[in-house]
Amino acid sequence: MNISAAEEESAQEIHIPADIDWEMLDKSKFFFLGAALFSGVSATLYPVVLVKTRQQVAQVQLSGIGTAFSIVKHGGFQGLYRGFGTSLMGTIPARALYMAALEVTKSHVGSTTVKLGFPEPTAAAIANAVAGLTAAMVAQLVWTPIDVVSQRLMVQSSSSQCRYVNGIDAFRKIVNSHGPKGLYRGFGISILTYAPSNAVWWASYSVAQRFVWGGIGCYLKGGGDETIRPDSKTVMAVQGASAAMAGGISALITMPLDTIKTRLQVLDGEQNRLRGPTIGQTVRNLVKEGGWLACYRGLGPRWASMSISATTMITTYEFLKRLSAKNQEGLL
């Protein structure tokens, strides 16, 4: 899908760099560089995710800053990276699955919708939404067990559960206590949380880019007919701004589901330890603890995390695609 083609009527004076589809990528370079780049992104954002998770499972509401200070006070700065090794080892294959499913689906759905007669902006939004939905569902096969283990490690110093030495120890104890299905606790609600969220995010990102580029076109339009070629910094700024807007909206919409998911994956339940709490029990406990607003505990860190990670992720991802393109000259 070529975003520049979608802008021909509304902003012809701006030459937007072509999008890079699956067939244009050097796959080995794409996955190798992707693992390295996204590992760095994960390391940067992990403390915010840990703070958000602690807030969600706490029975009393604390501010994000207060939670962070408490973690550092009791565990030092390394406490902000509790469970990071486990998370990283799972994130690499999960991210690879996500990127492959995203690009393959987007390429095929995009070309199909254009052939069906949809205008290219509409086809791009549909392709992005379907690709985001598909990628999230595929990646959850790996992400859910990693979430369960890493989140247990994140909160163990503040909960009444047994202690875990490391990710392997947590994995073994969860399987011994609950069987393999214990690793997929919250899988259904993870799909309900991340699949629609990804669909909304990728569709919103596609629409936001066109909106922003259209605004820039109107702003820069002068009396002449010359073609304006935005530099790489401008392209990156537009991508980052569009990603931040889409990330903030997704965080707000899916926050209650994320809180319930985290509770299901982390808490064993006091009265029903073998099966764990149900979704209904989890919601009732949350409401009992702090009313319906309890479902939004950790919204600040999650909003910040999703907005920052969306901006970082998309600029890193677009940069990765350009680095991995087979024909660098053809991108200009």
Report on the structure:
The protein folds into two domains: 102 residues, no CATH class; 140 residues, Mitochondrial carrier fold (Alpha/alpha barrel), CATH 1.50.40. It is built from ten helices and no strands. Helix 5 packs across helix 6, helix 8 crosses helix 9 and helix 8 crosses helix 10. The longest helix has 36 residues. The N terminus is likely disordered. It is found in: Membrane.
Overall tally of structural domains: 2
Counting copies of identical and different chains, the oligomeric state is single chain
Which residues form runs of ≥5 with pLDDT under 50?
1-12, 269-274
Mean pLDDT over the full residue set:
80
Q: Which helices and strands occur, and which strands form pairs?
A:
Blueprint: H1 3-6, H2 27-57, H3 64-75, H4 84-115, H5 120-155, H6 167-178, H7 187-220, H8 232-266, H9 279-290, H10 299-324
Helix pairs in contact: 2-3, 2-4, 2-10, 4-5, 5-6, 5-7, 7-8, 8-9, 8-10
Main location: membrane
InterPro entries: MCP, MCP_dom_sf, MCP_transmembrane
Membrane topology: Multi-pass membrane protein
